[in-house]
């Protein structure tokens, strides 16, 4: 049953990708191309990178970010869904959200200072852990 659902989701994603590529090749209108690309990026999300504690990861969502899956790309099999992102990389989505929240805050409000107590509270509210009262002298 799960294989049928995953196959249907993957099939729909491939049809959408084919539609996107086919439509893009028909027009050189930059505005139209940007709109289609934005629609595709909003509906078929992908995140990849490398993070300490997790190593390399490739995540895809086929439902606008509600559910994320760990995937692998194979030259023989194409995109292989390995399982949910949380199963394969426990806590990774939470860490990515923390950094997204931090990036959004800094873009909107400017940099945070680790010497400012209110900025430390903001970081804690985003999910970061702050160790207070530790000085560099106590490490020696």
Order of helices and strands: HHEEEEHHH
Structural class: alpha+beta
**Helix percentage range:** 40-55%
Q: What is the mean predicted local confidence, pLDDT? A: 80
The profile of the biggest β sheet is: 4 strands, antiparallel
- Taking pLDDT < 50 over at least 5 consecutive residues as the criterion, the unreliable ranges are 136-140
Outline type: globular
Count every beta strand, where a strand is a DSSP E run of 2 or more residues. Answer: 4
Q: Reading side by side through the largest sheet, how are the strands ordered?
A: 1-2-3-4
Number of helices: 5
Strand coverage percent: 15-25%
Count of discrete structural domains: 2
Short description:
With 140 residues, the protein is an alpha+beta fold. The protein has 5 helices and 4 strands. The protein has a 4-stranded antiparallel beta sheet with strand order 1-2-3-4.
Structure commentary:
- The chain has helices spanning 2-26, 30-43, 85-88, 92-109, 117-126, and strands spanning 45-51, 55-61, 69-74, 78-84.
- Residues 136-140 have low confidence and may be disordered.
- 51% of the residues lie in helices and 19% in strands.
- α1 (2-26) packs antiparallel against α2 (30-43).
- The protein contains five helices and four strands, in the order ααββββααα.
- It has a four-stranded antiparallel sheet with strand order 1-2-3-4.
- It is globular, with a radius of gyration of 20 Å.
- With 140 residues, the protein is of the alpha+beta class.
- The chain has two domains: 2-89, no CATH class; 94-130, no CATH class.
């Amino acid at each position: 049953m799960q294989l049928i659902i995953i196959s249907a989701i993957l099939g729909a994603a491939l049809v959408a990708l084919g539609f996107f590529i086919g439509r893009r090749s028909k027009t050189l209108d930059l505005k139209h191309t940007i709109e289609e690309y934005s629609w595709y990026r909003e509906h078929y999300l992908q995140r990849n990178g490398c993070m300490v504690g997790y190593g390399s990861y490739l995540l895809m969502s086929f439902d606008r970010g509600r559910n994320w899956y760990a995937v692998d790309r194979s030259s023989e099999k194409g995109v292989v869904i390995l399982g949910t992102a949380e199963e394969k990389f426990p806590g990774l989505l939470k860490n990515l959200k923390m950094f997204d929240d931090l990036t959004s805050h800094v873009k909107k409000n400017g940099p945070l200072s680790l010497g400012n107590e209110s900025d430390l509270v903001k970081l804690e509210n985003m999910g970061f852990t702050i160790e207070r009262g530790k000085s560099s002298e106590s490490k020696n």
